[in-house]
Amino acid sequence: MSVTTSRRALMLREMGISPQWHLRGGAPSADAMLAEAQNVTAVAAAVPHAPESQAGAVPSPETPRAGSDDRRNEIMRMDWAQIKACVASCTACTLHARRNKTVFGVGDENADWLFVGEGPGADEDAQGEPFVGQAGKLLDSMLAAIQLKRGANVYIANVVKCRPPGNRNPEPAEALACEPFLHRQIELIKPRLIVALGKVAAVNLLAREASVASMRRKVHQYRGIPLIVTYHPAYLLRSLSEKAHAWEDLCFAVDTMASLKNAARETI
Ligand code: SF4
């Protein structure tokens, strides 16, 4: 068995996919996608959210932000301790009313990898940590499949820090109100690569309405940081056939990270 085949078999086993599955069509090279990404306009972060199943209007990056400019500017100056304290006491949107715990994010604050989901579910709301339920277990398996582990060169965050009732998607005003926190987290982490988990994360980070299927296997840009889109683990739990696509995306992410590191070495 070749090294590539062996790696694929290991990844598939980690993700609970039959080792008989094979890539279809072949993925575009990360180098080619990175070159293409140079032409992609980096855009501002927060936009109203549309449900996974339907497209919705996306405002331009010039759309006024929720809250005052003063609030946003203040958050942009915060260090880790200040931003954690600010989130813990935040009442900037209606989601604060029913939360048990805010879910700030977790992991290596100097990570190369940043995974962004949509918002806390019941387990996360109870424990104050992102991705700790069944979807979290699958995310951990996905990370293990590419030799990553939460907390070790990996940071995990969400678009909103408080649980939307009934696990609904965040409303536009909620995502807008919470956006400065995620933006500041990204500024502080300075990840090499962002992986948007699901449509809510992708649409909010890219300020562009599109399906996950159409955004996969491309290197997008979030304020100059390469960004890749794949399915949310909770969606994968309901749509087992998409797990194979998610594995394909992880391979693409690994190749993209390798290309980014090579490019960084060449500029030294
Ligand atoms: S979701 Fe974000 S903006 Fe809304 S109350 Fe929670 S921390 Fe504040």
Keywords:
alpha/beta; binds iron/sulfur cluster; single chain; 10% strand; Uracil-DNA Glycosylase, subunit E; six-stranded mixed sheet; 268 residues
Write the SSE topology:
Layout: H1 3-14, H2 30-37, H3 69-76, H4 80-88, E1 106-107, E2 113-117, H5 122-127, H6 134-145, E3 154-158, H7 172-189, E4 193-197, H8 199-206, H9 212-215, E5 220-222, E6 225-230, H10 233-238, H11 243-266
Parallel strand pairs: 2-3, 2-4, 4-6
Antiparallel strand pairs: 1-3, 5-6
Helix pairs in contact: 1-6, 2-11
Residues 87, 90-93, 95-96, 102, 160-162, 174, 177-178 line the site of iron/sulfur cluster.
Tally of individual domains: 1
CATH topology: Uracil-DNA Glycosylase, subunit E
N-end to C-end Cα span:
36 Å
- By CATH, the superfamily comes out as Uracil-DNA glycosylase-like domain
What order do the SSEs take from the amino end to the carboxyl end, as H and E? HHHHEEHHEHEHHEEHH
For the residues shown, what is the average pLDDT? 82
The CATH class turns out to be Alpha Beta
Summarize the structure.
The chain has about 270 residues and is α/β, with parallel strands linked by helices.
